[in-house]
Amino acid sequence: MDRPPSDIEALIELMARLPGLGPRSARRAVLRMIKKRGQLLQPLSEAMVKVAATARECVNCGNVGTSELCAICADPRRETGEICVVEDVADLWAMERSQVFKGRYHVLGGTLSALDAVGPDELRIPRLVDRAKTEEAREVILALNATIDGQTTAHYIAGELEALGVRVTSLAQGVPIGGELDYLDDGTITAALNARKSL
Amino acid sequence: MDRPPSDIEALIELMARLPGLGPRSARRAVLRMIKKRGQLLQPLSEAMVKVAATARECVNCGNVGTSELCAICADPRRETGEICVVEDVADLWAMERSQVFKGRYHVLGGTLSALDAVGPDELRIPRLVDRAKTEEAREVILALNATIDGQTTAHYIAGELEALGVRVTSLAQGVPIGGELDYLDDGTITAALNARKSL
Fold first, then answer.
1. Residues 20-39 of B with CB under 8 A from A
2. What task does this protein carry out (chains A, B) (predicted)?
3. At what angle do helices A23-35 and B42-54 cross, to 10 degrees?
């Protein structure tokens, strides 16, 4: 049997390890790259070399940046006394796209999980407690996913911060904007009803 | 708003152009790469640089290889007088995985399509006719997808090869191995019934 040349096969195997890609879509992606060498493969390989050389984790918050402090932690205008805690960098970017939060972030890098043996020390939680003290935070906003693990983590963090007297809040739960009741799960409807507000 | 650093953003944009990835999955893929720099980002960037430098189209059949002639066209044992015509390289790899075809291939690079203005000259069809002559092919096997465009292309190629006196065949259509009738579409059942064979 003739297999793809070994360089190409190695590339396919690596691509297949990315989230959202399997062996078949990795093959398709690599063939598309080779077909569009000038527009896709060359620029991609250059972009990757660049990112591999420059990308690094912010020592303060865990965001991805190109220097020791990320752009947000380095910006004095974002020192508002509010720290928004997110699970990972993709969530931070989602928050930033909404353009509503003006403070700084703290990226946990996951959630507490007994099954996967992820404890507080794996999650930069001690660092968050430190920051809440040294940055004299007024409020810590827990923007964690509304999953079991996310909520467990939120409760644990709330407990850790209790002694500091900092205000701990979390994102509201309810009907998403544009959401239709008929398509929502029971849990969301229950949460929205319990948190109902007067008009 | 703080956006991802521009190098990372450029990488995300390029990744989002790959088939099967959108902006969201490209962001996830890039974050995973950065997280696993040693196991993923570094090897990926090296593999891409290598492939960008070495991968090229076989001048004879259109397969992807690392030299002017691909491994199959360069192998004299595969000069069997049979040419298997496929739409693209992924189909060639699929045929090779089945290990049943021992001859050579011809990669069209697509199908005829009036809508997308793809004519015979875009598809290496003239080159196929040349090859059928110069390689004194006994048989051209059309392994094109069972789509409208694939079948139109098959008919066109059969017409072009008619004058050469070469035998032109196509893959059988019918019930896939392991297939259950209840899950098959009407077209497949009709084709399988029409092509029924005595036991």
1. 20-21, 25, 27-34, 37
2. May play a role in DNA repair. It seems to be involved in an RecBC-independent recombinational process of DNA repair. It may act with RecF and RecO.
3. 50
